[in-house]
Amino acid sequence: MTICNGYSHAIIVDGSLATTFYGLKLLASPGMGILENGGAGGMVLQNVSIVPGPRPAGATTDRLVSTNSDGTHFITVERGPTIQDCTFANTSDDAVNVHGFYYYVVQKTAPRRYVVNPKWDIGLMAGHHRKLRERNVPVTRAPMVCGSSTISSARLLFAAASMPANFMAKLRTAAFSSAAHGTRRSATIPSHEVGLQKPPWPWIQAASANRSTW
Question: What pLDDT, on a 0 to 100 scale, did the predictor assign at position 144?
Answer without folding.
Answer: 62
